[in-house]
């Protein structure tokens, strides 16, 4: 074979190079050749031999009874290795080995998941909060046909509130030569109360008789 005594660091390095290109010691399925090398190594190898470690974990994953039924011939140079008749405690060690790897993989998966959740939460927190707004059409009525509607509109537009934006306006006839001021505004629902806005407009009592909400639509 292309490797020497697997109980030595040099032999393990040679075996690692061999397993870099081969899945098994002989052929394309596990055999007694693999079992003889496995038993010669004796325990999970340490050091920089990733291919040996991968192969060793693979062979160790088979139950002892199944390994004993493998075909093929043991390798001569390791034929004298102690047969694998591991007691229950050794089987437990094997299980612990893989359980440890599973725990490490699970911990890594949890860490990655936590990082993704934290990144998503941080990204979401940076998004601007949705501001609820409404479009409101107000009917502002004068006392009579002698009311200066330009002054009325000027007074109405002079009202300033956080979250209030005045829009277009027009005069609409209501009869007997009287016109009402119809004016649009956009408000932020959490900041502007229509009742309070109406009170502020009606405070111009010299020109304003009343205020009605002609239309109210959420934006």
From TrEMBL:
It comes from Pseudolycoriella hygida. Belongs to the EF-1-beta/EF-1-delta family. Keywords: Elongation factor, Protein biosynthesis. GO terms for cellular component: cytosol; eukaryotic translation elongation factor 1 complex. GO terms for molecular function: guanyl-nucleotide exchange factor activity; translation elongation factor activity. Residues 133-219 form the Translation elongation factor EF1B beta/delta subunit guanine nucleotide exchange domain. Transmembrane segments: none annotated. SMART domains: EF-1_beta_acid, EF1_GNE. This is Elongation factor 1-beta. It comes from the Eukaryota. InterPro entries: eEF-1beta-like_sf, EF-1_beta_acid_region_euk, EF1B_bsu/dsu, EF1B_bsu/dsu_GNE, Glutathione-S-Trfase_C_sf, Transl_elong_EF1B/ribsomal_bS6, Transl_elong_EF1B_B/D_CS. Residues 97-124 form the Elongation factor 1 beta central acidic region eukaryote domain.
């Amino acid at each position: 074979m292309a490797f020497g005594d697997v109980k030595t660091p040099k032999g393990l390095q040679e075996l690692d190079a061999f397993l870099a290109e081969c899945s098994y010691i002989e052929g394309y399925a596990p055999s007694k050749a693999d079992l003889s090398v496995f038993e010669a190594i004796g325990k999970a190898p340490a050091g920089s031999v990733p291919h040996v470690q991968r192969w060793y974990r693979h062979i160790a994953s088979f139950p002892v009874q199944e390994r004993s039924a493998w075909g093929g011939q043991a390798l001569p140079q390791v034929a004298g290795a102690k047969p694998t008749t591991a007691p229950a405690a050794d089987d437990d060690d094997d299980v612990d080995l893989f359980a440890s790897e599973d725990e490490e993989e699970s911990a890594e998966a949890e860490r990655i998941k936590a990082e993704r959740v934290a990144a998503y939460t941080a990204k979401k927190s940076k998004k601007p909060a949705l501001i609820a707004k409404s479009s409101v059409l107000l009917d502002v009525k004068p006392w009579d046909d002698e009311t200066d509607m330009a002054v009325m509109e000027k007074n109405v537009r002079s009202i300033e509130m956080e979250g209030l934006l005045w829009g277009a306006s027009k005069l609409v006839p209501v009869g007997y030569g009287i016109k009402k001021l119809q004016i649009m505004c956009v408000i932020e629902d959490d900041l502007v109360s229509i009742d309070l806005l109406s009170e502020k407009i009606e405070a111009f009592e010299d020109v304003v008789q009343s205020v009605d909400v002609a239309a109210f639509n959420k934006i």
